[in-house]
């Protein structure tokens, strides 16, 4: 059996190694147009920022090491320029000498990945404008920085690469600005959760120019001018386009393969394309979202590796299936960690789902053990069925652990109420006897049983104008005086029983405290005394972060990015 693989890195290299483990006699050749067949794509920004100092650390395997261990022919600087399904061959160009030749296959695997989205804008292509996708891109940026010592950079785009690169350039001492059309960074997060990412970026000196449309670039002797629609331009010594990636599927299109979202390759759950004996994996393929069942593009290393393994199994006579992508991801944002899995509230509603959420701010480990830090969790679930749909967590330590537990629960089909039943490891340096994941389950279980009724940030305008409700803040007097929502009266929870006559009966009581815990206790006191209560999801700490972030974005937008106004 002869197998040709187009592209290395995650999907292609994984498939190649797995085929060899399953079939010692298969003839396997990988054609890779770059000079690297297996590298740590996610580590590239950290090499630019000198966190990773040895460039060889980025290379997981070389053609020589791959051949020595697996007897796989890794042909770097070889580009497959066309596929001929009718005669089961590919045309290949040797990029070092220009030679073009044809190679036959029994099975063909496409793992071309995705390329940085290149908008058709004036100035794209000037020498101080970069993209970051490959090792070569990384070396190009690093060489420019080492040679020219730029003092400022503008990053167009606020996704994973944009944030990681912003942090690393900032750590090098550069003045860094992120500009993009959406008014939030990191689309996998809901806007309210993204506000905490915004705050952390600003805290470390990153300027956020959100809600602006880039219209082009002009090269200057001393840098780049970034042209913005209906606004003054930005100036920087260098620019990096990080506005997303597009499936690199020109080959597949020319060969007549069925294409889907943004020109991605359509595959079935065996990773087979519409053409017999051709498979595809990685960032170039359209997948099913595990939670919604909708078609999706999810460009992450984990799914690509799994897909490569599945292809290998099937080529070698097995029957492996890809169940869909869940979008589980985690990112370092300076001192913070932000993670997500499943779908967020915004996308759940777009998919037509009736959803509810809980927002809580537990400690990373037992409060009495030194060093614990607060994390903020948002768990999304379907009303009525309590199907667990997604989660987002932002904090400092223990975030990755909890998101993986929640990702596993979603994959296993657990209901959100069942999170309370999970038997999770506990010791004071690592967790609490009631783990944050359990706490989310307790809250959702209370909602299911009618013990807890909530109100959310989007309800604020409505209830603040309602004369037939009571608004009550149950924090301490000191906390209340340092900041509170307009219209709320203050009765500390520990004084509530003695002062309960101050609360008008017959009106629903809308409660808030710092994190949601004391206001829940207050709701139980009031419910026990005949009141109808609603507890604010997230608490004042969450409310304050979201509202302040939105105000900063709108102020910067209104003032033409002059943050001093």
UniProtKB/TrEMBL annotation:
Entry cofactors: FAD
An MF annotation (GO) of this entry: oxidoreductase activity
SMART domains in the cross-refs: RHOD (SM00450)
Keywords, comma-separated and alphabetical: FAD, Flavoprotein, Oxidoreductase, Redox-active center
Pfam families named among the record's database cross-references: Pyr_redox_2, Pyr_redox_dim, Rhodanese
Listed Gene3D superfamilies: FAD/NAD(P)-binding domain (3.50.50.60), Rhodanese-like domain (3.40.250.10)
Residues of the Rhodanese domain: 465-548
Organism: Blautia segnis
Official protein name in the record: FAD-dependent oxidoreductase
Record lineage: Bacteria, Bacillati, Bacillota, Clostridia, Lachnospirales
Family to which this protein belongs: Belongs to the class-III pyridine nucleotide-disulfide oxidoreductase family.
Domain of life from the UniProt record: Bacteria
PANTHER family: NAD(P)H SULFUR OXIDOREDUCTASE (COA-DEPENDENT) (PTHR43429:SF1), PYRIDINE NUCLEOTIDE-DISULFIDE OXIDOREDUCTASE DOMAIN-CONTAINING (PTHR43429)
């Amino acid at each position: 059996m002869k197998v040709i693989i187009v592209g290395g890195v995650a999907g292609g290299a994984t498939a190649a190694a797995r085929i060899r483990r399953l079939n010692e006699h298969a003839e396997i050749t990988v054609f890779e147009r770059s000079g690297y067949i297996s590298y740590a794509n996610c580590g590239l920004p950290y090499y630019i920022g000198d966190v990773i100092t040895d460039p060889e650390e980025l290379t997981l395997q070389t053609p020589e090491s791959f051949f020595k261990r697996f007897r796989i022919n890794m042909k770097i600087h070889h580009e497959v320029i066309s596929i001929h399904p009718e005669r089961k061959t590919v045309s290949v160009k040797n990029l070092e000498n220009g030679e073009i030749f044809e190679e036959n296959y029994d099975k063909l695997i496409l793992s071309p990945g995705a390329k940085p989205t290149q908008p058709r804008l004036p100035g794209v292509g000037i020498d101080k404008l970069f993209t970051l996708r490959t090792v070569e891109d990384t070396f190009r940026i690093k060489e420019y920085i080492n040679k020219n010592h730029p003092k400022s950079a503008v990053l167009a785009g606020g996704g994973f690469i944009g944030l990681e690169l912003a942090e690393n350039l900032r750590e090098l001492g550069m003045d860094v600005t992120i500009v993009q059309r959406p008014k939030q960074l990191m689309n996998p997060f809901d806007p309210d959760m993204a506000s905490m990412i915004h705050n952390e970026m600003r805290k470390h000196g990153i300027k956020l120019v959100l809600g602006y449309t880039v219209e082009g670039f002009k090269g200057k002797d001393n840098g780049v001018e970034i042209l913005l629609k209906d606004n003054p331009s930005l100036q920087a010594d260098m620019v990096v386009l990080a506005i997303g990636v597009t499936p690199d599927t020109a080959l597949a299109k020319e060969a007549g393969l069925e294409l889907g979202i943004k020109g991605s390759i359509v595959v079935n759950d065996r990773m087979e394309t519409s053409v017999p004996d051709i498979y595809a994996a990685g960032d170039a393929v359209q997948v099913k979202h595990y939670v919604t069942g909708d078609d999706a593009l999810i460009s992450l290393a984990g799914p690509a590796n799994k897909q490569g393994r599945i292809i290998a199994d099937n080529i070698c006579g097995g029957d492996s299936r890809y169940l869909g992508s869940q979008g589980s991801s985690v990112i370092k944002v300076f001192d913070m960690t932000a993670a997500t899995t499943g779908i967020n509230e915004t996308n759940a509603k777009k998919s037509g789902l009736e959803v509810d959420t809980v927002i809580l701010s537990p400690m990373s480990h037992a409060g009495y053990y030194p060093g614990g830090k607060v994390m903020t969790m948002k768990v999304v679930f379907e009303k009525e069925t309590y199907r667990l749909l997604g989660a987002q967590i932002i904090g400092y330590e223990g975030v990755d652990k909890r998101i993986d537990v929640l990702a596993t629960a979603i994959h296993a089909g657990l209901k959100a109420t069942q999170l309370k039943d999970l038997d999770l490891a506990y010791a004071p340096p690592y967790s609490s006897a009631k783990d944050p994941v359990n706490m989310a389950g307790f809250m959702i279980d209370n909602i299911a049983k009618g013990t807890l009724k909530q109100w959310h940030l989007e309800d604020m305008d409505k209830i603040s104008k309602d004369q037939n409700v009571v608004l009550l803040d149950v924090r301490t007097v000191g906390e209340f005086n340092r900041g509170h929502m307009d219209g709320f009266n203050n009765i500390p929870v520990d004084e509530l029983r003695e002062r309960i006559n101050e609360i008008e009966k017959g009106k629903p009581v809308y409660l808030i405290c710092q994190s949601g815990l004391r206001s829940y206790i207050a709701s139980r006191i009031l419910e026990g005394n005949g009141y109808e209560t609603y507890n604010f999801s997230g608490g004042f700490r969450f409310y304050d972060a979201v509202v302040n972030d939105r105000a900063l974005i709108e102020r910067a937008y209104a003032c033409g990015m002059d943050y001093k106004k």
